[in-house]
Design brief:
This protein has 5 helices and 4 strands. The chain is an alpha+beta fold.
Length: about 130
């Protein structure tokens, strides 16, 4: 999938429905997801069958959402926004930081390196320090 908006938090057919609501086109949505238009249509039908409601008026071009589709979309948008915020907070809480590899010459090993490690340890998840003896 070329465009993953929620990194798998929502099902693919929900993300396809949201994309269809934005692009108003099976073809454009198919291009975004790297799928065929028939696959996009099947995903939408699967969602509609699960929900037992028609979400898209297929008789119009560009596509328009049914009243039920508009209602679902209006309820999903705040949930998606809150989910994105929750993911960001979880990553921050788990110290989702890059790793750092750094080398120091031996003359820095007693004075600079301990202070450097102390300052950097809260900003990185993995620290690898090489001592270079000259």
């Amino acid at each position: 999938m070329k465009n993953v908006s929620m990194n798998g938090i929502f099902s693919r057919n929900v993300e396809i429905f949201i994309s269809l609501s934005k692009t108003k086109s099976f073809q454009k949505t198919a291009s975004i997801f790297g799928l065929s238009t028939s696959s996009i249509s099947r995903e939408l039908v699967t969602l509609e069958n699960k929900l037992k409601v028609t979400l898209v008026d297929r008789s119009c071009r560009p596509l328009i959402l049914t009243p039920e589709g508009r209602k679902l979309l209006s309820e999903l948008i705040p949930i998606m926004n809150e989910s994105q915020r929750a993911v960001a907070l979880a990553r921050e809480a788990s110290n989702f930081h890059p790793s750092l590899r750094i080398g120091f010459i031996d003359s820095f090993s007693y004075d600079v390196v301990p202070q450097f490690i102390t300052v950097m340890q809260s900003k990185i998840s993995k620290f690898i320090c090489y001592m270079l003896y000259v």
